[in-house]
Predict the structure.
Amino acid sequence: MKTNPLWWQKGIIYQIYPRSYQDSNNDGIGDLPGIRQRLDYLQSLNIDAIWLSPIYPSPMHDFGYDVADYVDINPLFGTMADFDALLADTHARGLKLIIDLVPNHTSDEHAWFQESRSSRDNPKRDWYIWRDPAPDGGPPNNWLSFFGGPAWTFDDKTGQYYLHQFVTQQPELNYRHPDVLPAMLDVMRFWLDKGVDGFRVDVIWLMMKDAALRDEPPNPDWNGVEPYQSLNHIYTQNLPEVHDLIRQMRTVLDEYDERMMVGEIYLPYDQLMTYYGEELDECHLPFNFHLIQAKWRAQTIRQLVDSYEDALPEGAWPNWVLGNHDQHRIATRVGLAQARVANMLLLTLRGTPTSYYGEEIGMEDGRIPPEYIQDPPAVNQPEIAHIIGRDPERTPMQWDDSAHAGFTAETAVPWLPVAENYTNRNVSAQDDDPTSMLSFYRALTALRRSEPALNVGHYTAVDHDNNDVLAYVRSASGRTFMIVLNFTGEPQEVSITGYGEKAPITLATHMQRRGSVTLPQFTLAPNEGLILQI
Ligand code: TEU
Ligand code: CA
């Protein structure tokens, strides 16, 4: 068991996509005063930290991940005074606030890029990655954008290409230039001085690129769907030099009390672990996205949890994620009934859980009519928009059954349409229903908070012979819970030996279920999960 756990180890992180949470001024876009109005609700979820996706000034080509100024607030979201008020109120309630930091690229409207593109001899020219055209006039190499097309755009004024692995309007900073990282560290200090508790760092594993800009080799396993996946990204991702940058970022955080960073990193476990740092001197938490990517099978998840636990370096703290603003929602991926099992898993595994707004009420992906599609990868690649488009998981929070689900005024036009199921899938409808998904989520988070076994205790897998059921034990200070999860829509017979006979049910996905089970022989209902006391 972890002794003296820090807030980001013991606590639950809740991600808010600010555009979609609560609109306070009826322009159809969520904002900071809107979030502030919902602090009662946030507190009622028993979460510990709020992470806000970017709120900086931005032309919104990538909905805020194209930052035009790192030290200000986008007027769409409010003012710096609104931010300060939100931070103060968040802290007053004992909650932490994590903001998104997007160091890999800026907006093309950022002053740094404006200078950089103005002439080849501008002092900021090499703050970005510029290269001459290839001999045929085309891009300098074969690198691709995640969002379709080449990763290079030609700039007429100075006759060179600049690198961008996302939209054209997101030029990439050059961290091989000695002045770039210090500028970003100053950005971090600006927010840390204000009192923010941490950063979620965007695409931290992409921050360094091959100095020689070599062509990337083809990916032999490409399934032919997403062009970006057709190359093996050995020269644009996970370069060894990135660790030195991350260590320097960590050093800044360590100048303050108990601040943290969680890095966005999509990598297999062996490589993911290197982002804790050899001396645990890099990311406090490198995001573990494997529950999002794995097949939803008990066996697969068991293997994934065990291999993660095994791969964790000594002293490194684990974390788990079911969804985010880039991924189809969990309730859509596994179904509404199974989403309760998924939440029980997330909130009983060892390690910091991150919930994506709406997961607590079982929000599903919205249906986006073609004329509403806004996400750049979907706009750029209409043939695969239904697969890679991210608008569906970004639809407005469903608060009640009034027009636009209470997200914005009836007369306003929300920036994305509210999901059709909002009339019954909403906070208000679930609030007073003791067996709703929301009540279940609150019961889970309350239990996790009150039981050291669940928030900081040991994890042990439990062997038994039903391959569709995952079972494990969490324990601390003499208290032990067994979690048993039915990953299927069929009833499952379970037989667990070695843990005694009768085990009282502490919490069940089907909340009416009470009493106890007989461990050597019991039945789980379809999509049922139980937390048992051992
Ligand atoms: O995402 C980076 C990233 O890897 C995603 O592009 C992901 O691969 C894709 O959405 C499919 O899963 C981060 C942000 O989370 C994303 O919203 C931004 O668009 C992107 O960086 C650029 O900043
Ligand atoms: Ca607004």
Observations:
- Residues 62, 65, 102, 146, 166, 202-203, 264, 266, 325-327, 390 surround 1-O-alpha-D-glucopyranosyl-D-fructose (ligand 1) (CB under 6 Å).
- The two ends are 17 Å apart (CA to CA).
- The chain has two domains: 7-107+176-442, 458-533.
